[in-house]
Amino acid sequence: MQKYAKERRDQFYKLAKEDGYRARSAYKLLQIDDYLHILHNVERAVDLCAAPGSWSQVLSARLPPSAHIVAVDLAAIAPIPNVKLIQGDITTELTANQVIAAANGLADLVVCDGAPDVTGIHDLDEFVQAELIQAAFLISDRILRTGGSFVAKVFRGQLTETILVERLSQFFKKVQIVKPAASRSSSMEAFVVGQGFKEGPGEIIQGVACIGRGGIDSDKTY
Ligand SMILES: C[S@@+](CC[C@H](N)C(=O)[O-])C[C@H]1O[C@@H](n2cnc3c(N)ncnc32)[C@H](O)[C@@H]1O
């Protein structure tokens, strides 16, 4: 099992090098898009917690040249074509306002791959991660257009399953958790995807769709 995970890590690591992505994370967003078409018809996108920038590279490459993309992180991000960069903490009002001003209109998509420094204490890590998701959602609530989509990294667990998905379903038509093949199976990471903003309260797709492995496995075991 460990060998398999390592091989997969190498596979996406090598692919990222070949394809010129700054991080193997790029394939997580690409696999989510292949499954849920979240980039379809997107003209305005916001990438929260974006450094080193591989998700923004995907947005820059997959969205039309006319697209308006804003990326923000605590860390500085090297320039990416067609992406406005902001350095700041998304949990602060100052940065939230800067992102909203830079977006200069309503967004079709907000993504957040944010991860705090992991302590290894699962409940604490899940809690801090939930704070980041809350900050991401607060920004989305101010900036997403009706019908827009939201993607955020989550740590799988009770908080995520019961509270977050339930709450998001009040705002989105469809909410589900996906685990892309590019996300290591040994990691608690998964992604919550809300589609159809303000078209809710909507449907919760139960379980975790494991995507990008040449088929969809529904994993309902956590
Ligand atoms: C896994 S990395 C993101 C990778 C990125 N999606 C990519 O593809 O290159 C997680 C990022 O979250 C950022 N982060 C964590 N907490 C943050 C906060 N409060 N505000 C802004 N960024 C934050 C970290 O600085 C880190 O760069």
UniProtKB/TrEMBL annotation:
<dbReference type="GO" id="GO:0002181">
    <property type="term" value="P:cytoplasmic translation"/>
</dbReference>
<dbReference type="GO" id="GO:0030488">
    <property type="term" value="P:tRNA methylation"/>
</dbReference>
<keyword id="KW-0949">S-adenosyl-L-methionine</keyword>
<dbReference type="InterPro" id="IPR050082">
    <property type="entry name" value="RNA_methyltr_RlmE"/>
</dbReference>
<dbReference type="InterPro" id="IPR015507">
    <property type="entry name" value="rRNA-MeTfrase_E"/>
</dbReference>
<dbReference type="InterPro" id="IPR002877">
    <property type="entry name" value="RNA_MeTrfase_FtsJ_dom"/>
</dbReference>
<dbReference type="InterPro" id="IPR029063">
    <property type="entry name" value="SAM-dependent_MTases_sf"/>
</dbReference>
<protein>
    <submittedName>
        <fullName>FtsJ-like methyltransferase</fullName>
    </submittedName>
</protein>
<keyword id="KW-0808">Transferase</keyword>
<dbReference type="GO" id="GO:0006364">
    <property type="term" value="P:rRNA processing"/>
</dbReference>
<keyword id="KW-0489">Methyltransferase</keyword>
<dbReference type="GO" id="GO:0008175">
    <property type="term" value="F:tRNA methyltransferase activity"/>
</dbReference>
<dbReference type="Pfam" id="PF01728">
    <property type="entry name" value="FtsJ"/>
</dbReference>
<dbReference type="GO" id="GO:0005737">
    <property type="term" value="C:cytoplasm"/>
</dbReference>
<feature type="active site" description="Proton acceptor">
    <location>
        <position position="153"/>
    </location>
</feature>
<feature type="domain" description="Ribosomal RNA methyltransferase FtsJ">
    <location>
        <begin position="21"/>
        <end position="197"/>
    </location>
</feature>
<keyword id="KW-0963">Cytoplasm</keyword>
<keyword id="KW-0698">rRNA processing</keyword>
